[in-house]
Amino acid sequence: MTTLTRPADTLTRDALTVLQPGFVGTSAPDWLLRRIGEGLASVGLFGRNIASPEQLAALTAQLRAERDDVLVAIDEEGGDVTRLEVRSGSSFPGNLALGAVDDTGLTRDVAAEMGRRLAACGVNLNWAPSADVNSNPDNPVIGVRSFGADPLLVARHTAAYVEGLQSAGVAACTKHFPGHGDTAVDSHHDLPRIGVDPEVLRARDLGPFRAAIAAGSRAVMSAHILVPSLDAEYPATLSRRILTGILREELGYDGLIVTDGMEMQAIAATYGIERGSVLAIAAGADAICVGGGLADDETVLRLRDALVGAVRTGELSEERLADAATRVRALAHWTSMSGAAERSGGAPGTEIGLVAARRALTVTRGESYAAPLTEAPYVAAFTPMANIAVGDETPWGVAAELERLLPGTQTGSFTGADAGALALAEAGERRVVAVVRDAHRHAWMTDALTTLLTARPDTIVVEMGVPRSSPRGSLHIATHGAARVCGLAAAEVITGA
């Protein structure tokens, strides 16, 4: 047993301070308010917690009635990953669309408007932006969440995003360190492994994080990835060599280090959330993100007690836990000081997301293209399995926007080997608009397009993922993301609106 230098209640309060838990419901449960009173300094929000901006503002006010400087965090990347607009689709295009435009001023403006909306609802920490360089085209979890595959482009837009978001008093949390772009495995399901030399990693993946640090990013989120050339034993979230040795000492970062969700299988299935949390804090992390799946008081108490127990046995130093808690409180203080001033002013830029989505389109007209659609088409959505980070409750596609512009538009969702034939049968004589997402990653999707285009060369194709396949169809539109505004921008081109 270790002889403690701080009172037991201080140790317990520190353990609560480093947790960022979630909860179920659109108002704060009693157990959460009680833990905030005992020292909990952060709360994470998900789509299930949000019904409207007014409700969200009431919820954050409820939390601040218990603690006025509580950190209220959210995973609001814009684009495919949205919590504010989880049931309608985002008003902002995501990173790949912004990278396709490659106007850092636009990226800064989009992030500033997103920050303004978050601050107006009382949210002061955003688990964004993704600074991952999407170097592996088969990446199943990053894709359009990345600004692109060019490290320099990703770096300049990451910095612009951080500056824009934080200009609204909302802390940025740049992720997923040291870079989740070169993976073919989703860390929600398993532990990805990146087999590159340190020189490659430094030249390709660390640049955007350097840029984020230089821009003043208040937080950085770790990745649940194994990089054997840096640490052959522990994934980045649990690695002292990576979090302390590289992020702190080599890159000189002094802000808050937040873990990715500890209930993700890359950690939960290999270490368990209790041991994983202890190892993460010992490695240099300051805040434990949990709550996407495990969102109850029992989880908070399990993690609190695991951290306290680890200090008592000497596995985790008392000083390291205290340092982590101090960094959490420092960020809470920054947001409480900067957010209040920013929330009182600033006019909304309501159209900036649509402006960006329109600029991000890449439009290719084929030989058979005649003119914009004037009659209601049949929209065939070729739907892949949902990315867990995105979720399956957020709508995507162009059907809703085409229905608004061309009343009578019909739609269907198809998947698998017979998708093309089934779509043809359902479409009948109507003109077909085929909507795909990462067609290059799904052979069945490519085959479905071939079936459609062979029978109906006048088919319009809308690619709403990473546009790596060659353009096909009488009209091909690459939106660089599946946000609602991306669908609207594509529908405008299809109809000539």
Summarize the structure.
By secondary structure, the protein is an alpha/beta fold.
Describe the structure.
This protein is of the alpha/beta class. The relative contact order is 0.13.
- DSSP helical segment count: 18
Please describe the biggest sheet, giving its number of strands, its sense, and whether it closes into a barrel: 6 strands, parallel
Q: Please state the oligomeric state of the protein chains shown.
A: single chain
Give the fraction of residues assigned to helices.
Answer: 40-55%
Distance between the ends: 72 Å
Q: What spatial order of strands do you see in the largest sheet?
A: 2-3-4-5-6-7
The low-confidence runs, each spanning 5 or more residues with pLDDT under 50, are 340-349
Question: Proportion of β residues?
Answer: 5-15%
Structural class comes to alpha/beta
Radius of gyration: 23 Å
Tertiary shape: elongated
Task: Give the SSE layout.
Layout (H helix, E strand, L loop, with lengths): L7 H10 L1 E2 L9 H9 L3 E4 L7 H14 L4 E4 L20 H7 L2 H17 L4 E2 L24 H17 L3 E7 L20 H7 L2 H8 L4 E4 L17 H11 L5 E3 L6 H4 L4 H11 L4 E2 L7 H17 L4 H26 L8 H9 L1 E4 L12 E5 L16 H7 L4 E5 L4 H9 L4 E5 L6 H13 L4 E4 L11 E4 L5 H12 L2
Parallel strand pairs: 1-8, 2-3, 3-4, 4-5, 5-6, 6-7, 10-11, 10-12, 12-13, 13-14
Antiparallel strand pairs: 9-14
